[in-house]
Amino acid sequence: MLLDDLMPWSTGPLRLGRSWVVAPDTRTLRSRWDLLVRSGAGERRALFRETRARGLHTAVAALPRQSTGTVRFTREDGRCPQPVRFAPGAFDEQWIIPDHRLIDAARPELWRVADERQLFAVEQGYVPGADGPVVLVSGVLPEGRSPTGRPGRIRPLYRRPGGLEPNLAPGVTEALIRRYGREAGAIGAEDVFAWVAAVGHGSAHGCVVPFTSDPDVWARGVELGRRIVGIQLRGARGGERPRLPGGRRPYVRAAIPARPTGLAYDAEEEALFLGEGRISPVPAAAWDFRVGGVRVLEQWFERRTTEVEPGTLEAVRPVDWPQEWTSELLELITVLALLGELRSAQDELGDEVARTELKDLDVPVIPAAARGPASVLDHHEEGPEGQFALL
After folding, report:
1. Could you state, in order of their start, the residue ranges of all structural domains in the chain?
2. Strand order through the sheet with 84-89
3. Residues of 216-240 as b/e, b for ≥16 C-beta within 10 angstroms?
4. Of 308 and 186, which is predicted with more confidence?
């Protein structure tokens, strides 16, 4: 079964239009905003980086659930909106200015349902022969592109705020209960979500989600998938933050310099080098972890250290390597190492599912409405120039 038929509502990736609206820390975003709103008309236009979709005179509604200005940005002189967590890449949580005037295609329908109960499945763009998971899990709003820049699909687990109305094809959970029997217990949306995380694999037609005919295999797959989801959420949704066993936890053995010049790995020493800085132990599974064929740790480092054009808002960033980046890197290493340890269990599960695979899951035809967002009318949304939007 294709994931597109299992979780019918999806959107394409966000299209930011300007990279300066995202940063690893909130101080940088506020500094960029302040520089922009203090600038004169000509400089403001150059710093803003206008596109066809967004410019200084664009009139646009506020993003759902966000308290931001809606006057044309050419007249904006207020404080920076409160940044929110955002996932611009695989396993990379940063911050974004949640201002609709600054984002070319923000996917407001996703912002309407993004809350403390929501989970997002991010289906990666298909790359033949590429290593890594096909579906990533995020508790914060993701951009939805693969590390190579290919557009993927963003699939919320719930169609309404508050964990209401699962984004599952009608009849899926009922079909699974019929298949596995009442002894399997109640099967909910998060069980199906966990199964997808454990067994989903790529194809030219999209992510394929096979279903087993064996109740025991189903139970083991859900349990494994819950572990995978929990690790990727990093303690969100009331879970525990991921930790490696004592003696295997990564530590800074040599201080990371203010401006590390490169990233390198020594497999024999299990050491990660950031210039003269050294972190160990770093399991090979963490260093080699890839998504779409791209090594996650290398891309994470490049996003924070690649040279940018002077005089732009992107050039406003920390001068020296902040301590919080080190903490985030240690946690990322832990996440990748733990997921790497589960790869063999996933491979074994995949083999078992293949031997017991169902030919078809007996579900009704998916109605067209299930492939679009639900109507969410539980709050006012401010339209352009302070008018209330009509939904």
Report:
1. 3-242+347-386, 251-332
2. 22-23, 92-96, 84-89
3. ebbbbbbebbbbbbbbbbbebeeee
4. 308
